[in-house]
Amino acid sequence: MGQRRYNCILLLITFASILGLTVSTLNEFSIINYKGISEGRGLELFEQWAKKHGKVYGCMEEKEKRLLNFIENLHYVLENNIYVKDSGHQVGLNVFADMNNDEFKEIYTPKRIMKKKPKLGGERRASKVSCETPMSLDWRKKGVVTGVKNQGQCGSCWSFSSTGAMEGINAICTGDLISLSEQELIDCDTTNEGCDGGYMDYAFEWVINNGGIDSESDYPYTGLEGVCNVTKEEIKLVTIDGYEDVDPSEGALLCAVVKQPISVGIDGSSLDFQLYTGGIYDGDCSSNPNDIDHAVLIVGYGSQGSTDYWIVKNSWGTSWGMEGYIYIKRNTELPYGVCAINAMASYPTKQSYAPTPYPSPTIPPPPPPPPSPSPSQCGDFSFCPSDETCCCLVEFSNYCFVYGCCLYENAVCCANNIYCCPQDYPICDVEGGLCLQNSADKIGVAAKKRTLAKHKFPWTKSKETLNSDELLLWKS
Ligand SMILES: *[C@@H]1O[C@H](CO)[C@@H](O)[C@H](O)[C@H]1NC(C)=O
């Protein structure tokens, strides 16, 4: 009994001293007289800010606590934007300006979200580290990125990163941009932990096993962990076929982003990141993969002068960053990139030969696959090496007079009788000399010109030894 009372008194004293400290700090306001911001101006800014962001505080204590956080953040913003000139990014009084960094971290980047790297059961890693890339790319302009969403006070960034990547690949393959349900992942995916965190790879795996995922509009976001609605779980509106991890390197990540929006893990826990409002971020954050605590989506890249950046979609609403986006510096010396953005990238896969929404008049019918083993037989009298494709060079009335060879296996022969395109970029942009994945794309790979097929006259038919000698030559 006595013991308990002692505890109570101690508690009371502690509480009173905390309260006293808070009130006295608030009353002194000496810290507000800092770099020209007066007490009155600080309060005024806070009131304006609260109004702009629709903040209403339940009680006076709460408001005072928020005001103190706000003033501290105001100092940080002033110091970093005005007194440190050469920072590549700006911080400001955004939607998180009334939170101190500890509580921000607790809610938005809890360490438990991505502490360990998911075990991957034998998925292929996309190890391609060099590829043809345009100078810049913005998937938003290609209509495959939904609007910025807001996870609210739930540690569900992983679900937003996952849906973003699936929305992207689905739109690229089918032409339909469908906003997908994070809530289904939070409620139904038991391999992840809802508002307590998760992994994008686990979410992709779950969607594959479930046979698809429902739309945002049918299974909307609540920001709370709920009971899985099995009726909605049965609605498999969008499917994916698989997923792959990207090798943790700048080059591999770039090659992946050229194909589709990519899920990445980052360290997003610093005050600098919390208050980010614009510019190319190269600020406070860890580039150690073990410090990854947040998940976002890369939707493109670009350059400003000599500084290169990723275009990154976050899930903190449009009142953070640049309308919800951040540019993160790329091409640095850091092995895992700024904020470890290269370290944990992955993406869902979907067959790209699904019915294309952009029927293009320039798509020629795919050539009949060369029937003979090797070399490829073109008509009766010519042939191409086994790893090339026969495409007609001179055609009349559906009859090919002169055959050419394309330097791709199972290539697409473009309708102009000059170019050919690889199988995975099947749409010929004859004017641009490009091969595209969708006819609306602005980027692709260069189309290749056909070379004249070798002639095989009837009298050489029996000379098999000569043919196989030539075959060896081609391969060397
Ligand atoms: C689940 O979804 C169905 C159909 O959308 C709805 O009618 C039902 O009320 C939901 N169940 C629960 C438990 O919310």
Automatic annotation (TrEMBL):
CDD domains membership: Peptidase_C1A
Leader sequence segment: 1-24
InterPro entries the record matches: Granulin, Granulin_sf, Papain-like_cys_pep_sf, Pept_asp_AS, Pept_cys_AS, Pept_his_AS, Peptidase_C1A, Peptidase_C1A_C
Superkingdom assignment: Eukaryota
Domain named Granulins: residues: 378-435
GO MF entries: cysteine-type peptidase activity
TM annotation in the entry: none
Transferase is among the record's keywords: no
A Pfam family matched in the record: Inhibitor_I29
SMART domains: GRAN, Inhibitor_I29, Pept_C1
Swiss-Prot/TrEMBL GO biological process terms: proteolysis
Family per similarity comment: Belongs to the peptidase C1 family.
Name by which UniProt lists this protein: Cysteine proteinase RD21a
The organism's taxonomic lineage, starting at the top: Eukaryota, Viridiplantae, Streptophyta, Embryophyta, Tracheophyta
